[in-house]
Specification:
72% of the residues lie in helices and 0% in strands. It has 218 residues and is mainly α. The two termini are 35 Å apart.
């Protein structure tokens, strides 16, 4: 029965991954618009168009802001030509971010099934539960890092709600829940009453993470 559930999970995941890859291909048109804009800046050295958006997150500002750490290297000097190269790096990082996100969501789903069996008294899968948890943590925080530390985009965000903004709001929820899940996991051994809160945090992280994946596709 357990193996049957795992096969279903893998089938669902493969379908999701194929959809994700098609979505990534479609999103290349958006990136090409930014490349075209940079191309016009490069061809006209007198153009004073901004090379960075007005607002970028702290992690990007530390690395890629006007006085960011990466600006100390000649390869990442703030010029139109080198910003074009940065956008290619950004595209690669975000494509990897999406693929790893799909793999991580599969791990989260498997972890939910294994964790439920563990909480129902099947202690034989405790090591499996911990092993999947380690893999999920590596996948999750690697996925997050690829987004947080990618070079900033060229254009400013549109005002009002958008799928990107909803994706970011959901990211705050699933990252907070993910950290809380790990903190509570270390305390469940000594206090079994915490298990329900650990489980609630884990399911919240998975739900918000999956919703963030879905919303970015539309």
């Amino acid at each position: 029965m357990f193996l049957l559930k795992m096969k279903k999970i893998i089938f669902i995941f493969l379908g999701s991954l194929l959809f994700n890859i098609n979505n990534i291909i479609a999103q290349k048109d958006t990136v090409n618009v930014q490349d075209d804009l940079l191309g016009s800046l490069t061809s006209d050295s007198s153009n004073q168009e901004k090379l960075l958006p007005d607002h970028i997150i702290l992690t990007q500002r530390i690395l890629w802001g006007k006085k960011g750490l990466m600006r100390n290297f000649d390869a990442f000097e703030l010029t139109p030509e080198k910003r074009a190269h940065e956008l290619k790096i950004r595209r690669t990082m975000l494509v990897t971010h999406q693929i790893l996100g799909s793999l991580t969501s599969l791990g989260m789903l498997a972890q939910g099934i294994v964790g439920t069996k563990l909480y129902n008294g099947d202690r034989s899968i405790k090591d499996l539960h911990e092993g999947i948890a380690a893999g999920v943590n590596i996948g999750y925080f690697t996925t997050a890092s690829l987004s947080l530390f990618a070079p900033p985009k060229m254009l400013n965000e549109r005002k009002g709600f958008s799928s990107i903004k909803i994706h970011k709001y959901l990211a705050v929820i699933h990252m907070t829940s993910m950290i809380l899940t790990n903190v509570l996991a270390d305390q469940t051994q000594n206090n079994p009453k915490i298990q329900k809160w650990h489980r609630a945090a884990a399911f919240t992280a998975f739900g918000a993470f999956l919703a963030a994946e879905v919303v970015i596709k539309f």
